[in-house]
Specification:
The chain is α+β, with helices and mostly antiparallel strands. It contains 13 helices and 13 strands. The N and C termini lie far apart (94 Å). It binds adenosine-5'-diphosphate. Residues 328, 332-333, 336, 360, 362-363, 365, 373, 378-381, 385, 390-396, 419 line the site of adenosine-5'-diphosphate.
């Protein structure tokens, strides 16, 4: 029998028993209905009394013991309530334990952690975050983080919506403390802001960049002198014939060294600043036409060098950097493509932005090398790169120059068929030409 039906039957039996006692009392005193009414009223009063005791216990159930009603409907109700209460306390204790553990582990974390809601208001932060960002417990809860962390670069990062890479920000122009901020979205509008002190890493990086820039500068002058003397020697008429070949090799090697040093200096200049460059309008079509002419003027070049300028839109950026990037790509295509092959240059724009592609019918590149091509000094075939006078820095220069323009390099290649290197610039870097109607 279901529990509910049993309880209902039980209650009905009790009411009937009370009524029966009332009938008996009524018969004794000669008034049956009064006897029944009195018995039922007593039964009701007893039930209400139990209800009042249950209510009093529920109000103080933390300290008081449950009413001592072991049997009947009220006994069942109290047992159920006690069970629910115990289960709730068990779960609550467990959640509290987990929460305490979580709080202890985040407090011990070497990184700062701040939980933000959709309005960038602080929900919670750990001790490291309060140390790094000078936040005060409880006082700063509920306040907007950009009102408390007053660094313009941080506000820009917060509003950018681009959180795949961390933002490394100098805390104060006067000191060398750098913090890396990384936002991670989770849940509904909740965000986790992680803060890490990267001062040591940044200062090592600065030292490395300075060292390369200084070493390249220092090497440039003696090399210029050596190259000058080699040129003079080579043009001497009375030189013994067996010196001609070693001299030619020395000139080739000094030209290679000069190339490496020039590329290192270009890279250092590109790395000397992190942010994006300002936008000056650059006529891509004209730049590519000059690059094409330069390639065709060389004694050795691919038979066909095609240029397709599908857009008159200008590119907003730094002309020297863009020239350096495009020249490296075009030179690579020309260098690695045999004289019988062809290369194609194309500039076009669409809703996503501006695109410059260099395709060639050269040897192509195996898929496993492609992700590493933009690393410094990475070459697929060292022998071939050296033979063609490559420094191994060209694509690193391209990557850096594009990064400073918010652009990306896409490399597609198939061994034996050729390669296509495409630079994708965001729409904000494209300046549409002023039409005749608009200008007139
Ligand atoms: P390098 O000065 O050696 O050309 P880069 O950084 O410009 O250095 O290029 C890195 C490597 O990528 C090159 O050594 C070469 O192996 C490969 N590479 C670059 N462009 C091409 C291309 N168009 N076709 C085939 N291989 C290429």
């Amino acid at each position: 029998m279901p529990l509910g039906v049993r309880a209902a039957l039980y209650v009905a039996l009790r009411v009937l028993a009370a009524a029966a006692v009332g009938v008996l009392l009524g018969l004794v005193f000669g008034r049956v209905w009064i006897g029944v009414a009195a018995a039922l009223a007593a039964y009701l009063a007893w039930q209400l009394w139990l209800l009042v005791r249950l209510d009093a216990w529920l109000r103080n159930r933390r300290t008081a013991d449950p009413p001592d009603v072991a049997s009947g409907l009220w006994g069942d109700v109290i047992t159920q309530v006690v069970r629910l209460h115990r289960r709730k306390r068990f779960h609550k204790d467990r959640v509290m334990r987990v929460l305490r553990e979580l709080r202890r582990s985040t407090a011990a974390m070497p990184d700062g952690v701040v939980i933000l809601n959709g309005e960038n208001e602080i929900v919670w932060f750990n001790e490291k975050a309060s140390e790094y960002l000078d936040l005060t417990r409880k006082v700063d809860y509920g306040l907007r983080i950009d009102n408390l962390v007053r660094m313009p670069e941080f506000t820009r990062y917060l509003q950018s919506g681009q959180y795949t890479l961390p933002a490394i920000i100098r805390v104060d122009p006067g000191d060398d403390r750098y913090l890396a901020f990384q936002l991670v979205s989770y849940g509904e509008g909740q965000r986790l802001l992680m803060v890490r002190d990267v001062s040591r890493r940044v200062s090592l990086e600065i030292m490395r960049k300075d060292f390369i820039a200084n070493a390249s500068h220092e090497l440039r002058s003696p090399l210029t002198v050596i190259s000058g003397y080699l040129e003079t020697l080579a043009s001497e008429s009375g030189l013994p014939p067996d010196l001609a070949e070693p001299l030619a090799e020395m000139r080739r090697q000094s030209a290679r060294m000069t190339g490496i040093i020039e590329d290192l200096l270009v890279l250092s200049r590109l790395e000397s600043a992190d942010g994006q460059v300002e936008g000056e309008p650059v006529d891509v079509g004209a730049m590519l036409a000059t690059l094409r002419k330069d390639i065709l003027a060389r004694p050795l070049h691919p038979a066909k060098v095609e240029l397709r300028v599908d857009s008159q839109a200008q590119l907003l950026g730094n002309e020297t950097m863009l020239h350096s990037a495009f020249m490296n790509l075009v030179e690579n295509a020309a260098k690695y493509t045999p004289a019988s092959g062809s290369i194609g240059l194309r500039w076009w724009t669409d809703a996503r932005g501006g695109h410059f592609a260099v395709s060639d019918t050269g040897p192509g590149i195996a898929a496993e090398h492609i992700p590493r091509l933009t690393e410094r000094f990475y070459r697929v075939d060292i022998g071939r790169s050296r033979a063609t006078g490559g420094s191994g820095l060209g694509l690193a220069i391209v990557k850096h120059a594009l990064q400073r323009h918010g652009a990306e390099l896409e490399i597609r290649s198939e061994e034996g068929r050729g390669s296509t290197f495409t630079c994708h610039f965001p729409a904000t870097r494209v300046a549409q030409p002023v039409t005749r109607a608009a200008s007139g």
